[in-house]
Amino acid sequence: MDLPAKKPVESLFGSKQFGWGERTYIMGIVNVTADSFSGDGLGANPEAALEQARRFALEGADILDIGGESTRPGSQPVNTREELDRVIPAVRLISRNLDIPVSVDTYRREVAEEALKAGACIINDVWGLKKDPSLFELAAKRPAGWVITSNQRENPAEDIMAAVTSELRETALRLLGLGVPARNIIIDPGVGFGKTLEQNLEIVRRLSELKTLNLPILLGTSRKSLIGQVLDTPPGERLEGTAATVALGIGGGADIVRVHDVAYMKRVCRMSDAVVRGKIWK
Question: What is the average pLDDT across 141-152?
Answer without folding.
Answer: 96
